[in-house]
Amino acid sequence: MSDAGKILEELNDRSREVFRRVVDSYLLNGEPVGSRSLTREMSEKISAATVRNVMQDLEYLGLLSSPHVSAGRLPTQEGLRMFVDGLLEVSNLGDADREMIDATVTGNSQDVADVLDRVGAALSGVTRGASLVLAPKHEAPIKHIEFVSLAQDRALVVLVFADGNVENRIFTPPPGQTPSSMREAANFLNALIEGKTLSDLRTRFSKEINARRQEIDVLARELVDSGLAVWDREGDAPERLIVRGRSNLLAADGDQADLEKIRELFDDLERKRDIADFLELADEGEGVRIFIGSENKLFSLSGSSLVVSPYMNADRKIVGAVGVIGPTRLNYGRIVPIVDYTAQLVGKLISDRG
């Protein structure tokens, strides 16, 4: 049993009720709760002084905190963790929410990326938060690749796979690329591509690049040491991580500090390069997992929570994940069944389409 579970077991009924009501109130309105407010809501008739003593005990246990001396109490990250693990009551998925999510996978679209983008938009709309969808990698051998220039800073790559699937991805080409240089790149790749997957090609080129980088690093280090250059290894944002509903959080009611935290959260998200971290969060077993504050290792910002669930293909192999991110006062009881249902729906979609 976890430490949180032991503490919860040791609480008497009164302490448990006070704790649960403080958390419920926080999740509802985000405000500290005072002893007088709780006195009116308690199932037994007790004085404000008694409630105050119980709250002090809960604060001593690390479950509640007081932002100001007389401002009431809020749950700590540890308190929220204990609430989620031991006291959270998960509601049933509502018909309206189910219908909105179901609508994203109806129709004749064979483009899985398009369907997953619509799933992300629906998940964001239903939860009023931001959604994350990690799309599965397509590992079939590539038959043909083509680059199409759309604008100076936008291009399209068309991937034709040996199993008949076609994927179109928009990307930002390196500076200085021209339509003719893209054609040359496509011709070069098509000469090497037979029987190889994207991962095969990436591995081959990574080895060549790493060999060259060792030479470059020596030269670059000399330039950095001399103060003539700054070494920046940042790459392009991962194309498999779909983020929808950012405006739901940026437009949320709250003071400037809260909005700035949310902006920092998304800035941090956009800086991430290794999307495997996101899949790792869900890769320890089936079902929905909840990460609160600093437990959420995908983001360095502690004022956020992630509700995430993996989805599987027909071979019961985890191939992706869906989730909702927002402030720690998410309505966990409502969002957990939404994420769970969406993950099952996406898994069925992936399995049906092979």
UniProtKB/TrEMBL annotation:
Any one biological process term the GO annotation gives: negative regulation of DNA-templated transcription
Keyword annotations: Repressor, Stress response, Transcription, Transcription regulation
Protein name listed in UniProt: Heat-inducible transcription repressor HrcA
UniProt-recorded Gene Ontology molecular function terms: DNA binding
Recorded name of the encoding gene: hrcA
Pfam family, one: HrcA
Keyword Transcription carried by entry: yes
Superkingdom in the source lineage: Bacteria
Family, similarity comment: Belongs to the HrcA family.
Record's keyword annotation contains Repressor: yes
PANTHER family: HEAT-INDUCIBLE TRANSCRIPTION REPRESSOR HRCA (PTHR34824)
Protein's job: Negative regulator of class I heat shock genes (grpE-dnaK-dnaJ and groELS operons). Prevents heat-shock induction of these operons.
Residues of the Heat-inducible transcription repressor HrcA C-terminal domain: 114-336
